[in-house]
Amino acid sequence: MKYLEMAMEKAVQLGADYADIRIQKTTSESIYLQNFSVKESNQNVLYGYGIRIMKDGAWGFAHSNIFTDEALVKTVQKAFETAKLSALVKNGAGLRLANEKSYDATYRTPFKIDPFNIPLKEKAELFMEINRRMLNYKEIKKAVTFFNAQKDEKLYASTLGTRLDINTLYINPMVTAYAMTDTDTQSRTFDEGGRNTGWEWLEDLNLLEKSKYIAEEAIMKVHADEIGEEKRRSLILDPNHLGLTMHESVGHPTELDRVLGWEADFAGISFATPEKLGNYQYGSKIVNFVGDNTLEGGLATAGFDDDGVPGQKWHIIKDGILKEYGTTRETAPIIGLDYSRGCNRATHYYDQPINRIPNLYLLPGKEELSPAQLINDTEDGVYIQGRGSFSIDQHRVNFQFGGDFFWEIKDGKLIRPLKKVLYRSNNPEFWNACDAICDKRFWQPFGVVNCGKGQPGQRGRMTHGAAPARFRNIRVGGSK
Amino acid sequence: MKELVSKIQQIVLSTSRADDFELWISFSDSYDARFAQNAISHHMSGQNLSVFYKAVIDQKVASSTVNQYDEETIKNLVYNTEELAKINQPDPEYAETLSKKAYPQVNNMIPETVALSPEKVIDIIKTSIEFSKEKGTLLSGIFSKSQETFFYLTKNGFEGTYETCSFDFSMTMKKEECETKISVSGKDFTKFDLQKELNRLFEQFSALSKPVQMEPETINVILRPQAVANLVMFLGWILDRRMADDGITPFKGQIGKAFFGEKFSISTLAEDDSMTIYPFTSDAVLKAIDWVKNGVINSLPMSRSYAKMIGDEAGQMLNMYIPGEDISEEDMMKMAGRGLIINNLWYIRPNDMRTADFTGMTRDGVLYFENGEVKHSVNNFRFNEKLHEITHRILALGESLICENTIKVPSFLIKDFNFVDKTNF
């Protein structure tokens, strides 16, 4: 597209030290059914471009949705003028970008069936049937199905000479049943958090069949007992639950922009400061976290980030020790690195990219171990499935999590379902309490499509993953 | 702008074949200068125009949004949305769009706010950072300015427009483990006094030196207005008639009853000089409503479709206002004897919706007081509390102040606030 070249030429002509342009068309569809009412069936197209210019160690960013030569030139000028103003308020020489090569590349999310080609009628009928099956149960008073698909078509150019053509696609189905009695309401949700793939994933999931279990477990949960007083117990957490736990307690604290204090005014900072690199016992020796923006189906897998840095795979925590961060070209040099791990991403064309969590997952255990063996080996504990309440402090140390479904474990057996279970822990206690992780046969991914960060707020996407794991001696109880 | 809007409306009117439709055209002009650790980190500006069209055909509904507005795109928007509606399932809960009616004329546009230039904003940030450096601290924050214009049209004859402008400035001051934040937001930049805000920030920061570790306990607290605003945003979310009637929240069957504490009232304001006022939504024209008055639930917000189902009136929790009693913080401390002053709350999430049980943490500084005097700052805490139960333990209310541009709330003095955990900072 001519605008890529025109923008880069104009930026250089104005005197930009570095510039890039991202022309991005985001097409999304969402369908939301509450019982038999289609509350939302919405298709959106957001199309425009964002131009980022660095001048004298400072950024300027401008965006537009008007595709004319005149508007483009004005937008480049605006980004340039904005960068010059930024340079009036910088530290020392300002920002420096980590080294990077130039690339000419194309990336496409692999998929078989484009969800946008499935007629709305077919989708709505499927979701209606899922709700119908759940509402067939007398105690299910509310059934909710949500579906969201999004494709992002991006053309990117930078003054490094990089030219990228990237198309990504994700889908995200979610099903919830609410069981109600006179005294309580409890829900059970199917939510794997989305995946970069096509409609074929939804077919594989067989949500019609799953809806039965969702409804039955919601009913089981509403009749379940509460756990009682808080005490220290073992926790066995399933991959879906662990996805959120690691997102909040490992993903965010290892974003380098937070570590550097760039999020101090809003999302918070991080306890995992640079002097801890290479020596901080973040977790037990079996805890290994990998950043991997090449993960198949990963929501952050796009070939390249919005700095034009290719997807990579690296250890963030190795054998329990904090090794590295998720970095960008602008943040990495501040801690003396001359390479970026490719974690700079923007949500829409009008967003300036920010340091994001990569696809981040816990490696499975090396020894053969099944969830059944893990439960069998646990005397007193709770097995938590799915995600529920979550809250963590702004340094990412103290947290409290709930879950979606709970089983009490006694003497190696699941003895009764529970509800309203919460656990409280902190970094580094929690990950150092991990004493067993099931093997790779039980590893599952879990997607996050709405990671809120930045000012103005952006919604990021990334995939986590784990096999079921056990944590010893954690405070588990109810709300009081 | 008016010409362009008129052109888009004409294309829609001449193209639409829907039984019913609604059309929103919104124009935004935004500017954001974000700074961290005494330097600008992100600096953004741009304009956007988006067109939202919702079509109803045989009670089947679909909607679409585009942000291109040439004739072909708008015609395609109408055509494609209607084609989507045709192949959708009928919505048994569909309600007709708003018909022609008058709406409040609001004055959200302040020339000085609209005229605020990037150069002026950079001056403000530079002055603030210089102030911070003089105090030996690091400053992070954001200055945002936005201007929006909305046009709304329905097939049933409603036609309305309104404009808004606003600015938001927040600053977090930090040195070692001490950090605190203040936010200023509003539509009227002439009321902004930078030096006053910097002094307020530094005063709040200075109070936090030499923090003492304290264990969590059940203790009296003074929640300052920003903390109350954050809590009330969640209350506003769950105060919904349908969620109540469905049994998702604890408000089922409570209308007309004193479910909240006597000192607690919450209203939607139809006019206020300091707030940005939204005169209508797709659901209803703005009307002043006392949702809860002296603890009694009068009504709960609900969508247009649910209002039709139960034969009631639609309304939304906009322009939120909690009346105060103008009791000073000093007097509150005397009344409480011993307790904590909370500047802000953070990461509030539901533990259990049916009981309105929420968790969250303190942030931006906690002060311990005894015998009517602040003694020292303490670490942060986690709370678990049922939102409506808190209102039964309100001992006193301060003066209602604007927070977040559309929320006006007082400080709360609350008895026996339930803290369950703590941080080491």
Which key phrases capture this entry?
heterodimer; A: alpha+beta; PmbA/TldD fold; 2 domains; B: 425 residues; alpha+beta; 10 helices; 24% helix
Give a structural overview.
The complex is a heterodimer of chains A (480) and B (425). In chain A, a hairpin with a 4-residue loop joins strand 6 (163-180) and strand 7. Chain A folds into 2 domains: 2-223, 2-Layer Sandwich (PmbA/TldD fold); 226-477, no CATH class. Chain A has helices at residues 2-14, 69-86, 120-135, 200-205, 207-222, 239-251, 256-259, 371-376, 429-432; strands spanning 18-34, 37-55, 58-64, 104-108, 140-158, 163-180, 185-191, 225-226, 231-237, 289-292, 313-318, 321-322, 344-345, 354-355, 360-362, 380-385, 390-392, 398-401, 405-410, 413-419, 422-426, 434-437, 444-453, 458-466, 469-477. In chain A, 20% of the residues lie in helices and 38% in strands. In chain A, helix 1 (2-14) packs parallel to helix 2 and helix 3 runs parallel beside helix 5. In chain A, the strands form 4 sheets. In chain A, strands 8, 9, 16, 17, 18, 19, 20, 21, 22 and 25 form a 10-stranded mixed beta sheet that branches. The relative contact order of chain A is 0.14. The mean pLDDT of chain A is 97. Chain A has 480 residues and is α+β, with helices and mostly antiparallel strands. In chain B, a hairpin with a 2-residue loop joins strand 2 and strand 3. Chain B is built from 10 helices and 19 strands. Chain B has helices at residues 2-15, 71-86, 111-114, 118-134, 194-206, 225-238, 241-245, 304-310, 329-336, 387-392, and strands spanning 20-36, 39-57, 60-66, 138-154, 159-175, 178-186, 218-223, 266-268, 289-293, 296-297, 320-321, 338-352, 357-370, 373-378, 381-386, 394-397, 401-403, 407-409, 412-422. Chain B is 24% helix and 39% strand. Chain B folds into 2 domains: 2-201, PmbA/TldD fold, CATH 3.30.2290.10; 211-425, no CATH class. Chain B is α+β, with helices and mostly antiparallel strands. At the A-B interface, strand 2, strand 3, helix 2, helix 3 and strand 17 of A face strand 1, strand 2, strand 3, helix 2 and helix 4 of B. Strand 2 of chain A pairs parallel with strand 3 of chain B.
